[in-house]
Amino acid sequence: MREFELIARYFAPLATHLAAKGLKDDAAFLTPPPGRELVLTKDMIAEGVHFLPTDPPATIGAKLLRVNLSDLAAKGAVPLGCLLGLGLTTAIDDNWIAAFACGLGEAIATFNCPLLGGDTISGLDRITLSLTAIGHVAPGTALLRDGAHCGDFLMVSGDIGGAALGLAQLRSADGLKDPAAVLRYQLPEPRLALGQAMTGIAHAACDCSDGLLADAHHLAKASGLQVIIEADAVPLAPGIEDRLSALTAGDDYELILAIPPARVSEALTLSERLGVRLTRIGRFGQGQGLVLTTAEGTVVTPANLGYQHG
Ligand code: ADP
Ligand code: MG
């Protein structure tokens, strides 16, 4: 199918915002909501690196939007729209694109983040996808990485390690799969409502995509502080056996927050109202780096904190 037919059939229906002009122009024309500041983010994913060649195209489409919305969530932003970069291989057929667009469309509808435009190329060796998500916040209220204060509590939403467990199960040949873990890997939940609720309360935030320890360290480093994490306090997803490896595994897309002790009860009330677990797992202190403590009081500093971008 020719590129313009493909866009008209599969992607124009996802471009419901007037700004997109039905994907019939060269560009989109977006007026930010009055008095709001834009927040922009892009994530790329490639076959064999961020998703498996056997992953269903519908979940690939949905995950592409969801991981980007996780970045908006971590900044406290409300989704506004997105742009899609579609890099296809010659092996891709119409069925793949139809299913991909269907999964992306479902996520677009769920999170109210319409398609505003994009670009399409083909003939690549592996499927390579990119998405730019645009959100908005009240000016100056976005949650940043560099705002943590000495004495702030380190808190995490949800639980950790489920996505890595799901990925390991999908990769293993024995056929034993826990549907909840597979779902955690294929359809991560962007914590948009929690992120928005934490603006004005949390001093700093980021999402947990590279691994809990690595991402907590990002917050500490950006804020010029040390982060002390109590390994045993970290809530783990059901079925996790190796605590330490769960702390360095990626893809969970939970929020990691620096919250001043005086605001913790307020934060807990809000998260409870939203039905999202929020757990204190450590604190920020003077110094630098990451200290991991266990119940025995042992201090472990794992050499590899998480996924390193190559
Ligand atoms: P160009 O020739 O400048 O690359 P195109 O003719 O490819 O532009 O794009 C025409 C319209 O289709 C534009 O509005 C563009 O944003 C949109 N578009 C192209 N590819 C995609 C895609 N994969 N998803 C969404 N919109 C797309
Ligand atoms: Mg053009």
What's this entry about, in short?
This protein has helices at residues 3-11, 57-74, 94-111, 162-171, 179-186, 192-198, 212-223, 243-248, 264-273, and strands at residues 37-46, 78-89, 115-124, 128-137, 153-157, 204-208, 226-230, 254-259, 278-285, 290-293, 299-300. With 310 residues, it is α+β, with helices and mostly antiparallel strands. Helix 3 links the parallel strand 2 (78-89) and strand 3 (115-124).
Low-pLDDT residue intervals, each spanning 5 or more residues: none
The string of secondary-structure elements, in order, is HEHEHEEEHHHEHEHEHEEE
- Number of discrete helical segments: 9
What class, by secondary structure content?
alpha+beta
Q: Approximately what portion of the residues adopt beta-strand conformation?
A: 15-25%
The span between the termini is: 34 Å
Question: What do the pLDDT scores average to?
Answer: 94
Q: What is the radius of gyration?
A: 20 Å
Strand order of the largest sheet: 6-8-5-9-7-10-11
Descriptive report:
- This protein is an alpha+beta fold.
- About 30% of the residues lie in helices and about 25% in strands.
- The chain has 9 helices and 11 strands.
- It has helices spanning about 5-10, 55-75, 95-110, 160-170, 180-185, 190-200, 210-225, 245-250, 265-275; strands spanning about 35-45, 80-90, 115-125, 130-135, 155, 205-210, 225-230, 255-260, 280-285, 290-295, 300.
- The protein has a 7-stranded mixed β-sheet, with helices on both faces. The protein has a 4-stranded mixed β-sheet with strand order 1-4-2-3, covered by helices on one side.
- Helix 3 (about 95-110) links the parallel strand 2 and strand 3.
- The longest helix is centred in the N-terminal third of the chain and has 18 residues, at about 55-75.
- The two termini are about 35 Å apart.
- The structure holds adenosine-5'-diphosphate and magnesium ion.
- Adenosine-5'-diphosphate (ADP) binds next to helix 1, strand 2 and strand 3.
